[in-house]
Every structure is written in C-alpha cells, then in structure tokens.
Amino acid sequence: MISPSLHPEAVKAVCVPRRRWAFGLTPRTIFLLGAGLLFVIPGFYEARFSYAMLIWDGLVLTAAFLDGLRLPRPSQLTGTRSWRSAPALGTATEIELTIENAGRVIVECRLTDDLPPALTREVADHRLRVFPRVPATLRYAVRASERGDWETGWLYVRYRSPLGLAERWARAPLSETVRVYPALRSTEEQQIFLARSRQIDLQLRQARQRGLGRDFESLRDYREGDDLRDVCWTATARRGALITRQYQSERSQPVWIVLDCGRLMRSRYVPPGGAESGQSKLDHACATAVALAQLALYSGDRVGLLAYGQNVQQRLLPGRGAAHLRQLIELLAQVRVETSEADHLRATAVLNRLQPRRSLILWVTDLAETAMRPEVIDGAVQLLRRHVLLFVAMAQPEVEAIAKVRPRNVDEMFRAAAAQEMTGRRERLLARLQEQGALTLDLHPEVLTPSVLNQYLTVKERGMV
Fold this sequence. Notes:
CATH architecture of the largest domain: 3-Layer(aba) Sandwich
Low-confidence stretches: 204-213
Number of helices: 12
CATH topology of the largest domain: Rossmann fold
CATH superfamily of the largest domain: von Willebrand factor, type A domain
Shape: elongated
Structural class: alpha+beta
Helix content: 25-40%
Mean pLDDT: 84
Distance between the termini: 30 Å
C-alpha cells in the first residue's frame, strides 16, 4: 500500500458555463413535442386540431422554459475530485467526485470526468442526485496502465430538475498533474520475505565475528599486536591504561538497483489469459525495485538507484528511512523507456565512481541478439572486480515458445532453429558471467520479484557482501 502522503491532492472549483448558450431541451421534452404531431392526423378533417397541436407544443415549451429558469446557475455548483489511493500499476484506484448545490432545486447530474488514457481507456458517465445545500458524492475506480506524470482534464456536468424538461451544461476546472507509481506488492505477500529477513538478522547477530569489519562493537584492554589506530585515547585517559576499540562485521550494506531503460525493455509481457496489453519489462523491473528497496531498508541496508539509457535518467545515492523510500518511488515513477540502445559502459563508469566500496548490485536488463558479445556483459565484468553482482536478464517467452514447438514445415523449422540458437547463446553468455563470480537469473517478468527477493535474502544469509 502506498503511503497516503503520495496521494494526489484534492481539487475543488466552481463550475462555469460550458459554452455561451449552455442549456438545451431534454429527450423527454423532444418526445412530448413529437407527441403533438398526433394532432396532425385529425387536423386533415378538422382545422381546430391543428391549432391544438400548436397550443400543446407551446405549453410544452413554456413548461421547459420555466423548468430551466428554476435550475441553479453553473456558478452555484461546485465540483471536487479527490483520490482515495495513489494511482499505481496493477491496482485499482478509487476516485471520489463531490457536487455541492447552492441552489434551491434538487438536480439530477450526469458527470463526465476527463482523465488521460493512461488512467482509463473508456470515458464513463456517472449519475448523481444532488439536494440543495447537501454535498453529494460518488466513487468509481480506474486502473492505470502507464507510469509517469499525467494531466487530468475538467469535470463536465449536465444537470436537470426532477421534472426533466430542460437541462444546463457546466464544467469545473479540476485539472491537475497526477503521478502513476510502479506496481506494489500487497502486505500479505511482503510479510513472507520480511519474516525471513528477521530470521536471517537474528542468525547473523548470534554468529557475528569480532575483529572483522569497521562497525564498533565494544572496548577492551590493549593487547600486544593491536593496531595503534584502534586505540581509544579518551577511554585510555579516563582509565590510565591503553584501551582499544573492538569492531565487528558491518550489518548495514549498500544495495544498488540498476535499471536498463533501453529499447530492449520496451517490449510488453502479456501473461496467459491476461489483459490485451500487459506491462512493459521496465514496468516489471520498477515493481521489483520497489519491493527490493522495501525489504532491504527493513533489513537495515542502504539502497541506491541508477536508471540509465543513453544517459543517466535517475540517480539516488544509498540512504535509509521512509523519506528515502518515498524519494526512490517518486524517481521510479518518472523512469522512461528510450527508443535507442542503452549505454551500459557509461552506466558502469558512473556506478564505480559513485560506489567505490564493495556493495551488492542488482542489475535488471536484457541481452541484445548480436553477433558480438553484448556490451552489457563487458560492463558486468567490470563491476565484478569490486562488487557482488546479481545480474537479472528478462526472459523472452515468445522466443522460448517458438524454440519448443515441433516444426511442421520448412518455415517453422527455420524459425525453431533460429529460436534455439538465440536461447542457447543466451544461456552460454549467462553461464560465462556466472563463472566469473556473478549471480545470474534469467526470469519471466511475472516471477521476477519473488525470485530477486529470495536471491537477496540468500546473499544476506551467506554474508557475501
């Protein structure tokens, strides 16, 4: 669940006329006017029935005019849009619309909320009855399909009295910028990994090794062979004897999340039986980044972010705390897929400059199908000289499916052979990278998050950083 502080702010505005002549007749009035044409038939035999038709239509129009005069002016209506939850991929977002009527007549409103296609694919009309001086509220849900910042439009209101002979058209300027965040795991799903993290932390506390690392553990008497740099001179002055500091292995480690935003992360993954258009590989990577950041911060680690394409898009130095997690989520919401190949070597150089000390790096990317060794492999080898690297390649389910199909003709045979060559080359590249010390995963997007969290906990349990 996203923190309420990330929810978009409520917007409230007084309605204005939709156009200069912002009123009209309702279908009910048109039907009653059409009913007057029934007098035409007897009018062929008796002329007075023709006058009856005119009198009928005049009465209907007069009633519609008086009904329209009773309606409140647009300036007497106030519209409000508020968000019950922050928009995020994969979850329904509830929006609350409120209309306040400062007039004297009950109005039947037909509301149309202008939202960007990233939040809803279909424009829906909502009906609401509003009593005088009593705010009326309705709620409806939307499901976001794209991350990032999106501009909402106006709220359009068509309202009439219960008599329903005339209606007015108004609109409320409720435009605002709404940020759609990456998908988040539910609390129940996250509890499993948090429980395992607590267990690992207890085991590490019981098995901590004194003398290693640079985290202060305790003071003791100086012994022959101790480093003079570890002498605590303030304690020595108080006790009149040499006192040295004793250290233990660091429990808090820097964890870097590196996201490839190049063209290979643009493809969308649609799970079997899923929606028409699924989320992109980068969307799945961002969701995994949020889940790992939550788990790592809970475990006491510091989390940093580097999202790159041709240039670095977003960068966040390792830190802790709820404010740091919020900043990371805000940056992930603004990450964009680029149409060109990402510059992996530049990202590697930037990361080595930002993190000179040993750390755990999660690198989520994909392997380009080229005759030469992909550049991302060269960058990964450079990181392995100093860091623990968890290299995650986003699998290609379509290619794997083609490779497993038994060909029935020559064309399918060539397609299957090409797919098998691609998957075999991919496996060899990851195997060679693993031989050089990297932790490698080749995963479908739908199992990316739980697999990465389990691998992170394994790294913590073994004390590999």
